[in-house]
Write a structure and sequence with these properties.
The complex is a heterotrimer of chains A (290), B (275) and C (450). Chain A is mainly alpha-helical and 290 residues long. Chain A is built from 13 helices and 3 strands. Chain A has one domain: MetI-like fold. In chain C, strands 1, 2, 3, 4, 7 and 12 form a 6-stranded mixed beta sheet that branches. In chain C, strands 8, 9, 10, 11 and 13 form a 5-stranded mixed beta sheet that branches. In chain C, strands 5-6 form a two-stranded antiparallel ribbon. The chains are: A mainly alpha (290), B mainly alpha (275), C alpha+beta (450).
Chain lengths: 290, 275, 450
C-alpha cells in the first residue's frame, strides 16, 4: 500500500464523501434512533417515552404481521429467484448458445424499470378485468380469474411474484458471471472422477457460486424487507392489512398519523433486521468450506 | 464447464427464451396499451389497429410529464455526477492509501449500504424543512449523493485495490502527487467501473420514489415516478394514458441501460466478483 | 479539516451517537417556534395564510370566493395552500410547527383532526367572534353539537365553538334510473325492498352495489347506510361523542356488519371492489356499471354532469315503511383560526365571508348542499339529482335524524377502522372479531385522553 505523502491528504480525499454521507444519512439515522425514545407529533414538545415505542411496536399485532408479510416477500423476492436462477444460469453457461447474451439482458430488463412503473403496470395486468384474467378466461379457467390485488389471500403472493419477476434477471446475471469464474480444472477433475451432472453441480458449481449467491440473497432480501414503492403504488397495504409491510407502516405513522416517535422506533427495528439479515447471509457464505 | 451437447444447447435456448418471453410480455403489454386510441377501455391484450401516439402527447400537455421528466433529468444527472466524483476520490484513498482509522471510516461509510431510507427520512425531512430546503431539488440531490456515496466508494475502492501496484509506485517515484496519479494513471483504466457507477447512480436516482414523495410537494418539481403515481391515482380510469405515462417514465433509464448494457453488465460482474 | 476527521475518530461511535442524540432532540422538538413571523405585514399589505384539503368543484368555489375576499379588502392577499385529503392532517401539523403557520385552516370534525389539534392548543375557540357575527345562530340545531369541543380537547360535542362549517353532506344511495326501470323495480321504500331489489338486479346479471373499496373508507360509508337502520341513536352517538358505556361491539353494529357481510356473500357487491378506487367506481357507475352506488352527496355535481336525469338519490330506506329516514351526514369541515395567527380578527372576517349566504347560494347553484337555511334566497337547483340530495338533507335536519360520522370518534381511521371494515365485509373476519378489534383501538385512544 502506498504511504500517503501528506498526513492529511487521505482525509481530504475521503472528506467529500463524508460531507454528503454524514449530514444526510448518518446524522438523520442517529436522530431516528434518538427520536424513537420519544413521543412526538411533530408539533408540540416531545415527551420522553423510554422504551414505550419499542414495547408497543413489538407487542402490536399489526407490526408483527408487517414483518411476517416481509418474510413472505423474502421468499418470493429472494429464495424463489435464486432457486430458479441457479439452474437457468448454469444451463445458459453450459450451452453458451448464441443469443444467450441478448436473452439474459432481456431477463435483466425489469431491474432498469422504476418500481412505480412496475407497480402501476402490474396493477393493470392483475386487475379483475386485466389481461392476465382475460388470458385465463380464454383458456377456460374462469374460476381462476379473480381480483388478484384485491384478494385477501392472493394480494401478498401476487406482489411477491411481481418482485420475483423484477429480481430474477439480477440473479441470473450474477450467477452467470460467477460461473465464468469457476476454474475449468475443477470441472475436469470432476469429470475424471466420473461425476454425473447433478453431482458436478453440487460439488463444483454450487460452492463456486457461494459469493454471487450471497450477493444475490443480500440484495433481494434487503429489497423484500424494504419494499415500499411497490406496495404503495398498488395496494397501499390493503385489502384489510394483508399487504402491510414495515416500510408502509413507517411512512404512514410518520407522514399520515404524525406519530413520529413510533415511526422512528419501527425504522430502527427495520434497520436492525436488515443489518442482521445481511450479516447472517454473509456469515453463512463465509463459513461453508469450499 | 463441460461442453454441452447439441440437444442441450437447443433446450437451454428454448427455456431461456420462455423466461425471456415471460419477462418481456408484461412490458410489451403496457407498450401496446399505451398505443391504443384514447378512450379505449381495454381489458385484454389487444393489438391496436393503428398506432396512436396521442396518449403520449396528452401525457405531456395535460399531465405535465414534460416537467416531470425534466425534473428527473436534473436530479439524476446531478446525483450521478456527484456520486462519481465523491466516490472516486474516497475510493482512491481507501483503495490505495493507508491512514489512521481507514478501516473504521470505511465501515462507517459501509453502513450506508444497509441503512434503509425509511430509517432516515423522518429527521431528514424535519432538518431540511428547518433549513428551508424542502421543495427544492437540493432536498433530493444531497441525500441521494450521500446514500450513493456508500455504494460508490465501496465500488471504486474495489477497483482501485485491484489496480497494479507497480504503476502507482513507478509514478510516485517519478515525483507525481496523488492527484496526478489518480488522474493520469488510474482513471483512464477505470472507465468500465466508472461507467457502471454512473449508470447505476443515474438509474437509482431516476427510479427513487420515497425521497421525492416526502420532499417535493410542489407540482413543478415533481420527478417522473412521483408524477406517474399521482397521475395513476387521479385518473384511475384513463388506463391508456397511464400506460403512456409509464412508458415515458421507464424509457430513459431502459434506453440508457440497453445502450450501455454490454459494458455495464461486464463492469458489474467484474466488480461484484472482486468482493 | 483533518482535525475534525481525527476528532471524529477519537470519539468512538457510542459517544458520537449520544452527542448527536442530545443535539438532535433539543434542536428537533419544541413548540411552534413562532418567533418573528416576517412576511405577514409588509408595508401595509397583509397576507392571510389559508390551508384546505378540498378538491374538485368545491375547491374551485373556495378559490373564487377567496379571491373575492381579496377584492373586497384592498391590501389583503389570501394565500391558499391545497393538500390532498390523505396527507392533509400530517402536513397541516408540520405547517403549524413551521415559521409560517397558517392563519386559517380547515379541519375535520371530532377527533379525526380537530380534536388532536385542539388538545395541542393549536386552534382558537371562536366564541367571541361567533357572538359578533352570529355564527352560533346560523346553523341548524342538529349541526351545532358537531361544532363544539371542550378546550382541553377531551370532549367532543360540547364546550367552546371551533370550526365554522360551509358545506354539508349526507350519505345515501345513488341509483341508475333506467336500470331500475328495466328491472321493473320501483325506488325501494324499505330495507326489505332494497334487499329484494339487490336480488332482482343480481338475477338479471347486473351488479347491484357498485363500490370502489380500494381506499378502504367507502366500505365504512356502506356501513353507515346500514347502521342508519340497524343501530340506535344511543349506540351511534355514544361512539362518536366518547361515551365509554357504549362500545363498538353493541348489537346494532354487529347486526350491521353481519348484514353487509351477507350482502357480499350473496354477491350483491361489485366483485372487484377491493381493487377499485372510489373514483374508478364512480366513473364506471356513470358509464353504466351497477344499479346502486352508495356515496356521499358531494358527488352530485359529477354524477349529474355525466348522467343527467338518469341518476337519482335517496336516503337509506327505513326498516318499517313510513318511518322517518335516518342518515349519516354532517355540516362538513369547518374553518378554524389557529392559535399562532397574528391576525385573528382578519381571519374571522375571512371566515365570516366564506360562510355567509352568498357563498351558500353559489354552493347550492353548483349542486352541493349548504348547512344554512336559505329560505327564499335559495337558488334554483341545477339538476333533479341536486334536488333529491337537497330534499334529503332538509328531511334529516327537520326530522332531527342526522347521524354523525362514526369515524369522528378517533384519529387514524386508516390504521384499524377502515381495514377492519373491509375485512369484515369480505368475510375475512367475523363481525364479532372485527368489531372487538375496533373497540380495542378505540379504548386505547380514549385512555390516552385521560
Amino acid at each position: 500500500m502506498k504511504r500517503s505523502s501528506g498526513r492529511a491528504v487521505p482525509y481530504l480525499y475521503v472528506l467529500p464523501a463524508f460531507l454528503f454521507f454524514v449530514p444526510f444519512v448518518l446524522v438523520p439515522f442517529a436522530h431516528t434512533v434518538g427520536l424513537s425514545f420519544y413521543d412526538w407529533d411533530g408539533l408540540t414538545q416531545a415527551a420522553f417515552a423510554g422504551l414505550d415505542n419499542y414495547r408497543m411496536a413489538l407487542g402490536s399485532p399489526l407490526v408483527r404481521s408487517a414483518f411476517a408479510h416481509a418474510l413472505v416477500l423474502i421468499f418470493f423476492f429472494g429464495v424463489l429467484p435464486v432457486l430458479v436462477a441457479l439452474p437457468l444460469a448454469a444451463m445458459s453457461a453450459r450451452a453458451n448458445a448464441p443469443g444467450g447474451n441478448a436473452l439474459r439482458t432481456l431477463i435483466f430488463l425489469p431491474q432498469a424499470i422504476s418500481t412505480v412503473v412496475v407497480g402501476v403496470s402490474w396493477g393493470w395486468i392483475l386487475a379483475l378485468d386485466g389481461p392476465l384474467n382475460a388470458a385465463l378466461r380464454a383458456l377456460g379457467l374462469d374460476w381462476a380469474a379473480i381480483d388478484w390485488l384485491g384478494s385477501f389471500t392472493w394480494a401478498l403472493p401476487s406482489l411477491g411474484m411481481v418482485g420475483a419477476w423484477t429480481l430474477l434477471g439480477l440473479c441470473v446475471a450474477l450467477f452467470f458471471a460467477g460461473l465464468q469464474q469457476i476454474p475449468e480444472s475443477l470441472y475436469d477433475a470432476a469429470a475424471v472422477d466420473g461425476a454425473g451432472r447433478w453431482r458436478t453441480f453440487r460439488a463444483v458449481t454450487l460452492p463456486g457460486l457461494k459469493g454471487p449467491v450471497a450477493v444475490a440473497l443480500t440484495v433481494t432480501v434487503v429489497s423484500a424487507l424494504r419494499a415500499f414503492d411497490l406496495v404503495f403504488v398498488t395496494t397501499r397495504g390493503g385489502p384489510g392489512t394483508e399487504t402491510i409491510v414495515p416500510g408502509i407502516l413507517i411512512y404512514r405513522r410518520a407522514f399520515e398519523d404524525a406519530r413520529l416517535g413510533s415511526a422512528a422506533a419501527l425504522a430502527v427495528i427495520l434497520a436492525v433486521v436488515v443489518f442482521a439479515a445481511t450479516w447472517i447471509i454473509n456469515r453463512i457464505a463465509d463459513r461453508k468450506p469450499s | 464447464m463441460i461442453a454441452a451437447t447439441r440437444p442441450e444447447k437447443t433446450w437451454s435456448t428454448a427455456i431461456l427464451l420462455v423466461f425471456a418471453a415471460a419477462t418481456v410480455l408484461p412490458i410489451l403489454g403496457i407498450v401496446l396499451l399505451s398505443l391504443q386510441p384514447g378512450e379505449a377501455q381495454l381489458s385484454g391484450f389487444a393489438w391496436p389497429d393503428r398506432l396512436d401516439f396521442g396518449n403520449y402527447a396528452r401525457a405531456f400537455e395535460v399531465a405535465h410529464f414534460g416537467s416531470y421528466l425534466k425534473s428527473s433529468l436534473v436530479v439524476s444527472i446531478a446525483v450521478a455526477a456527484g456520486t462519481v466524483v465523491v466516490s472516486t476520490l474516497a475510493g482512491y484513498a481507501f483503495g490505495t492509501m493507508r491512514f489512521a482509522g481507514d478501516n473504521l471510516l470505511f465501515y462507517v461509510l459501509l453502513t450506508g449500504l444497509v441503512i434503509p431510507f425509511e430509517a432516515v427520512i423522518v429527521p431528514l425531512y424535519v432538518e431540511l424543512q428547518a433549513a428551508r430546503l424542502t421543495n427544492s431539488y437540493a432536498s433530493v440531490i444531497l441525500p441521494l449523493v450521500g446514500v450513493n456515496a456508500a455504494f460508490g466508494t465501496f465500488w471504486m475502492r474495489a477497483y482501485f485495490r485491484a489496480a497494479p501496484r507497480e504503476l502507482i509506485e513507478a509514478a510516485s517515484l517519478d515525483g507525481a502527487g496523488s492527484l496526478r496519479i489518480l488522474w493520469k494513471v488510474l482513471l483512464p483504466g477505470a472507465r468500465p467501473a466508472l461507467l457502471t457507477l454512473v449508470v447505476l447512480a443515474f438509474m437509482w436516482s431516476w427510479n427513487e420514489f420515497l425521497l421525492p414523495l416526502v420532499m417535493l410537494s410542489r407540482e413543478d418539481l415533481r420527478t417522473a415516478p412521483l408524477g406517474l403515481a399521482f397521475f395513476a391515482s387521479r385518473y384511475t380510469t384513463d388506463r391508456v394514458g397511464m400506460a403512456a405515462a409509464a412508458v415515458m417514465v421507464a424509457l430513459p433509464v431502459v434506453a440508457l441501460f440497453v445502450a450501455t448494457h454490454r459494458r455495464f453488465v461486464h463492469g458489474m460482474w467484474a466488480g461484484a466478483l472482486k468482493q | 479539516m483533518s482535525r475534525t476527521a481525527r476528532g471524529r475518530l477519537r470519539f468512538g461511535l457510542s459517544r458520537l451517537v449520544a452527542a448527536l442524540f442530545v443535539a438532535g432532540i433539543s434542536a428537533g422538538c419544541g413548540p411552534n417556534g413562532a418567533g418573528e413571523r416576517d412576511g405577514a405585514v409588509e408595508g401595509g399589505r397583509r397576507t392571510l395564510e389559508v390551508w384546505t384539503p378540498e378538491s374538485g368543484s368545491r375547491l374551485q368555489l373556495v378559490q373564487r370566493r377567496a379571491a373575492g375576499f381579496s377584492a373586497a379588502h384592498p391590501g389583503v392577499e389570501v394565500n391558499l395552500t391545497i393538500r390532498d385529503f390523505g396527507s392533509y392532517p400530517a402536513q397541516l401539523k408540520l405547517a403549524l410547527a413551521s415559521d409560517r403557520p397558517p392563519d386559517v385552516a380547515i379541519g375535520n370534525l371530532g377527533w379525526s383532526l380537530d380534536g388532536p389539534l385542539i388538545k395541542a392548543g393549536l386552534l382558537r375557540p371562536l366564541d367571541p367572534w361567533a357572538a359578533r357575527y352570529g355564527w352560533d345562530k346560523r346553523f341548524p340545531d342538529a349541526a351545532r353539537a358537531q361544532m363544539r369541543f371542550t378546550t382541553d380537547g377531551r370532549q367532543f360535542g360540547r364546550g367552546a365553538i371551533f370550526g365554522i362549517p360551509y358545506a354539508a353532506d349526507v350519505i345515501g344511495w345513488f341509483y341508475n334510473a333506467r336500470k331500475l326501470e328495466a328491472l321493473k323495480v320501483p325506488v325501494p321504500m324499505t330495507l326489505a325492498e332494497l334487499e329484494s331489489s339487490f336480488e332482482t338486479a343480481k338475477h338479471a346479471g347486473e351488479v347491484p352495489i357498485m363500490l370502489g373499496n380500494k381506499a378502504q373508507w367507502p366500505g365504512l360509508h356502506l356501513f353507515y347506510l346500514v347502521s342508519a337502520d340497524l343501530a340506535s341513536n344511543e349506540e351511534i352517538n355514544g361512539i362518536v361523542f366518547g361515551d365509554r358505556a357504549i362500545q363498538w361491539t353493541a348489537p346494532g353494529f354487529v347486526q350491521s356488519a353481519r348484514t353487509l357481510a351477507g350482502w357480499n356473500e350473496k354477491g350483491f357487491i361489485e366483485p372487484g371492489a377491493n381493487g377499485m378506487s372510489p373514483a374508478d367506481a364512480l366513473a364506471r357507475f356513470t358509464q353504466g356499471s351497477g344499479v346502486f352506488l352508495p356515496a356521499g352527496s358531494w358527488n352530485v355535481a359529477e354524477l349529474s354532469a355525466a348522467m343527467a336525469d338518469n341518476v337519482g338519490f335517496f336516503l337509506m330506506p327505513p326498516v318499517r315503511a313510513g318511518d322517518p329516514r335516518r342518515a349519516t351526514g354532517s355540516v362538513g369541515y369547518g374553518w378554524h383560526i389557529t392559535t399562532a395567527s397574528r391576525q385573528p380578527d382578519l381571519a374571522a372576517e375571512f371566515i365570516d365571508f366564506m360562510t355567509r349566504d352568498e357563498f351558500a347560494i353559489e354552493l347550492v347553484a353548483g349542486g352541493d348542499i349548504t348547512p344554512l337555511d336559505l329560505g327564499e334566497r335559495a337558488p334554483r337547483l341545477p339538476s333533479r339529482l341536486a334536488g333529491d340530495a337537497y330534499a334529503a338533507w332538509q328531511s334529516v335536519v327537520s326530522n332531527g335524524t342526522l347521524l354523525p360520522y362514526l369515524e369522528f370518534a378517533a384519529p387514524n381511521g386508516a390504521e384499524v377502522l377502515y381495514p377492519t371494515m373491509q375485512s369484515m365485509i369480505a368475510g375475512h373476519e367475523t363481525p364479532e372479531q372485527g368489531l372487538a378489534r375496533i373497540e380495542e383501538s378505540r379504548k386505547e385512544f380514549l385512555d390516552s385522553l385521560r
